[in-house]
Amino acid sequence: MTKQKITVIPGDGIGPSIIESAVQILKKLECGFDFDYADAGLTAYEKTGELLPQQTLDLIEQNKVALKGPLTTPVGEGFTSINVTLRKKFALYANLRPVLSFKGTRARYENIDIITIRENTQGMYSGLGQTLSDDGATAEAKSQITREGAEAIVTFAYELAKKEGRKKVTAVHKANILKSTSGLFLKVAREVGARYPDIESTEMIVDNTCMQLVMNPEQFDVIVTTNLFGDIISDLCAGLVGGLGMAPGANIGTDCAIFEAVHGSAPDIAGKNLANPTSVILASVQMLEYLGMKDKADRLRNAVRDVIETGDRTTRDLGGSAGTTEFTQAVLERL
Ligand code: ATP
Ligand code: MG
């Protein structure tokens, strides 16, 4: 059998240190992977003058599975978000962002287990828009939703719910105001939901969802929503389980998948051995599940859970005083 190759993109800021942590752990788990390293983001720009070198794109295409650190897109005209580019280029239409409570974090809740499924290529992040007047005082952005796109993401959510024995899917929208785009999404969500009588289907307006998530988050199971709402709601969900350091994400298409942390490059703590690598370690758990390696995924999740629950060498964001490398060591010892 040929070895599964994983494209590893360390990325910017805290990226290289948390990705290194995840790779060490995957090696220890003896997953039999080959790792192909590739550059993207500012790191690549400084070396090659390109944010997304062709070589990196080729490797993602060839290996089909990538583990990626956060990438910084320089602010300013002419730079399209690298993450958005990757999602579009490889048609990674589903962004799967699970949050799960571990005891021992500083979170306000104990029993959170929510998966946000975010549409990843359409809506407000379609990248369409322009400045309308010469003085730059008027600008517009275009949000586009297609029936095909909505159907694909909602079906993805229900199939995942079915596979994982989840009870409820909540479609989050703003169809009362955004009648055309969010209206189409909701209409399709209702149609798809009707095909899954064994799963409870509910719908909720996005602003109310934010309040409900803060007041009574235990009512949520799987959330499916459009691009912008999903981005915001998944950060909110990360806050429910102890912050961005705890939140992984998978970008999944029909052919390729890229696993990453939900957070950005955290320049404020970069290079200081302060970052919590749990986000990318749990993204590796998602990757193992995607590759059908459920036993190893469970072992890894349990090891991280144990480190955090016992407060053994946890990072500062979790209330501990250890660094990225000590935390990683604590996880390695449990494997
Ligand atoms: P970007 O524009 O790249 O998304 P951002 O401004 O949204 O960046 P993040 O990088 O997502 O910022 O970080 C937000 C805050 O969360 C920062 O204070 C950062 O230090 C903290 N943070 C993010 N990731 C981690 C982590 N893995 N461990 C500890 N703290 C983190
Ligand atoms: Mg951010």
From TrEMBL:
Keyword entries, A-Z: Oxidoreductase
Pfam families linked to this entry: Iso_dh (PF00180)
SUPFAM superfamilies in alphabetical order: Isocitrate/Isopropylmalate dehydrogenase-like
Superkingdom: Bacteria
GO molecular function: isocitrate dehydrogenase (NAD+) activity; magnesium ion binding; NAD binding
EC number(s) on file: 1.1.1.41
Domain called Isopropylmalate dehydrogenase-like: residue spans: 5-331
EC supergroup of this enzyme: oxidoreductase
Matches recorded under PROSITE patterns: IDH_IMDH
Methyltransferase in keyword set: no
Oxidoreductase recorded as keyword: yes
Record-level GO BP terms: isocitrate metabolic process; tricarboxylic acid cycle
Family listed: Belongs to the isocitrate and isopropylmalate dehydrogenases family.
Stated name of the protein: Isocitrate dehydrogenase
